[in-house]
Automatic annotation (TrEMBL):
Keywords, ordered alphabetically: Disulfide bond, Endoplasmic reticulum, Glycoprotein, Glycosyltransferase, Membrane, Signal, Signal-anchor, Transferase, Transmembrane, Transmembrane helix
Keyword Transmembrane helix in record: yes
Pathways involved: Protein modification; protein glycosylation
EC number from the UniProt entry: 2.4.1.-
Principal subcellular localization: endoplasmic reticulum
Protein name from the UniProt record: GDP-fucose protein O-fucosyltransferase
Catalytic activity: L-threonyl-[protein] + GDP-beta-L-fucose = 3-O-(alpha-L-fucosyl)-L-threonyl-[protein] + GDP + H(+); L-seryl-[protein] + GDP-beta-L-fucose = 3-O-(alpha-L-fucosyl)-L-seryl-[protein] + GDP + H(+)
Main enzyme class: transferase
Presence of the UniProt keyword DNA repair in the record: no
Ranges that cross the membrane: none
Domain Fucosyltransferase N-terminal intervals: 76-179
GO biological process: positive regulation of protein secretion
Length: 492
């Protein structure tokens, strides 16, 4: 084994992640909730998903019942991303879960411990250069990544996601799914819409039919390119930093701090609009945010582009307008104009607010059966929930290993459990409007996001090669990363 080469590959990986950080502009990788918290202040307006974005230290486990195991014997769950450690104060905490107890810790010295059974990672922070290597065969890797892949494209590729054994992502297919992380419940959708005549009155006073409120402008979904084109065919009032053509009416509302809370004045203002442009920052199956749910809460019709499978989650089959159903922005504009002038047709989009109007049983069941809550103090948040999920999984795996050890002839070794690409299914980014071939090579979206996407694959493959200690592959990737580094250096 050539240790020098290993070091060089690692160094190259480190260098690459620095480059990626530079190329991602204002985003701070490694800052949980970076986008929501400051780069895209409008987005957090209605409510915040639970603790992953801050409220750390909420759930102290109950005191252990008498006669339970000593803490010293418990399996250890190590939060490799220490910033997310959901306990306070201190660096370790005994947690009580359905199957039993575990010791949660954020002390990285526990990595090599035989008792450490699982490492927990936050996707936004996960960097190849910071991965705990060498990987211990007895340890599961657990990934929490509820956010958009723009924070880390490594995880959108097979070699990246398959590094993990357990996942909690926005995908319904993940082990601990969080697709409805931004939807507090069915009642949130059912809230009555303001009378249509009020909106008609705002229209008469010169409001556009469509609202756009976006302050994070360069994103993988390249949404502004589409909206810019749409604006040629129908009026859009745009209040955020992106494509801004209007000012919010008061200084207080213009203050981004106001916009990040659940501000009644802001919500009242937004509900003057009949249609809200709702474009996610990245396109992934089941990645849906408040951009989708908030207009529905306010009784507006979302004009949506985001999760390609969003229909599966809608209250009924006639509640939002999907941008991708229209062959061009012009056709979409014509349709919105038609609805704008036909109240009877428009109001059909709000039928889900009527009693019995939510007919999607899959949506209702998913809301009912999830164990975590959104802004609900009576339910666990999904950070603590996932931690217990991992604890239970490891306790079960320990039992299965013990059973196998006691009668190896009858009971097989437990099957490995490996995450799948469906746990974070984000297709190659495409331009918001037009074809990728038509976009010049020096276009910022192409230079930034398309490159980032493919570099995510390279990093995943490089890290896999490191873990499997495959010298041939390591050499190949070192050469590759070196090339990128040289190229980047020339460009800087
Ligand atoms: C919507 O659902 C209704 C009732 O199930 C059905 O009759 C109708 O064809 C559906 N419409 C679309 C566009 O799928
Ligand atoms: C965890 O995933 C890796 C692949 O990344 C696999 O080799 C290993 O067997 C899995 N471990 C368990 C305990 O399932
Ligand atoms: C991209 O290249 C074209 C022609 O090579 C040039 O006219 C244009 O200014 C460049 N755009 C940017 C953003 O650099
Ligand atoms: C190392 O990687 C190469 C290229 O992917 C592959 O052909 C080879 O079988 C691997 N060797 C080992 C020992 O896994």
């Amino acid at each position: 084994m050539a240790a020098w080469r290993t070091e060089r590959v690692l160094a190259a990986l480190g260098v690459l992640s620095v480059c990626a950080a530079i190329s991602s502009g204002p985003l701070a990788p490694g800052e949980p909730g970076g986008e929501v918290e400051w780069a895209e202040p409008w987005d957090g307006a209605v409510f915040r998903p639970p603790a992953a974005l801050g409220a750390v230290g909420v759930a102290r486990g109950p005191e252990p019942p008498p006669g339970r195991e000593h803490t010293a014997d418990l399996p250890v769950l190590l939060w490799w991303s220490p910033g997310l450690f959901p306990h306070f104060p201190g660096d370790s905490e005994r947690i009580e879960c359905a199957r039993g107890a575990c010791l949660a810790s954020r002390d990285r010295r526990a990595q090599a411990e035989p008792r450490t059974r699982a490492l927990l990672f936050y996707g936004t922070d996960f960097r190849a250069a910071d991965a705990p290597l060498p990987r211990q065969a007895h340890q599961s890797w657990a990934l929490l990544h509820e956010e958009s892949p723009l924070n880390n494209f490594l995880l959108s590729h097979g070699p990246g996601i398959r590094l993990f054994n357990l996942t909690a992502t926005f995908s319904r297919h993940s082990d601990y799914p969080l697709p409805l992380q931004w939807l507090p419940g069915a009642a949130y959708l059912r809230r009555a819409a303001p009378p249509l005549r009020e909106r008609a009155e705002w229209r008469r006073r010169g409001y556009a039919p469509l609202l756009y409120l976006q302050s994070h402008c360069d994103v993988p979904a390249d949404r502004d390119r589409y909206v810019r084109e749409l604006m040629r065919y129908i009026p859009v009032d745009s209040y955020g930093k992106c494509l801004q053509n209007r000012q919010l009416p008061t200084v207080r509302l213009q203050d981004t701090a106001t916009a990040t809370g659940e501000d009644p004045e802001l919500l009242a203002f937004l509900s003057r609009y009949k249609f809200h442009l709702a474009l996610e920052n990245a396109i992934c199956h089941d990645y849906m945010t408040e951009k989708l749910w908030r207009p529905m809460h306010l009784g507006a019709v979302p004009v949506y582009r985001g999760s390609p499978s969003v229909r599966d989650w809608m209250p009924n089959n006639h509640s939002i307008i999907l941008i991708d159903d229209f062959e061009s922005p012009q056709k979409l504009a014509e349709f919105i104009d038609f609805l704008d002038k036909n109240d009877e047709e428009y109001i059909k989009y709000l039928a889900y607010k009527q009693p019995g109007g939510i007919t999607n049983q899959f949506l209702l069941d998913s809301l009912e059966h999830r164990e975590w809550g959104v802004n609900d103090p009576l339910l666990p948040n999904y950070l603590n929930g996932f931690e217990c999920f991992v604890c239970d999984h490891e306790l079960a795996r320990l039992d299965a290993e013990k059973a196998h050890a006691s009668s190896p002839g009858d009971i097989p070794v437990p099957e490995p459990h490996v995450a799948q690409p469906s746990h974070m299914n984000c297709p190659v980014p495409t331009p918001g409007f037009g074809k990728v071939e038509e976009i010049p090579e020096n276009d910022s979206w192409k230079e930034m996001w398309l490159q980032d996407y493919w570099q995510g694959l390279d990093q995943g493959e490089a890290l896999t090669a490191m873990i499997h200690n495959n010298e041939t592959q390591q050499k190949k990737f070192w050469d590759y990363l070196h090339q990128i580094f040289m190229k980047r250096n020339q460009n800087l």
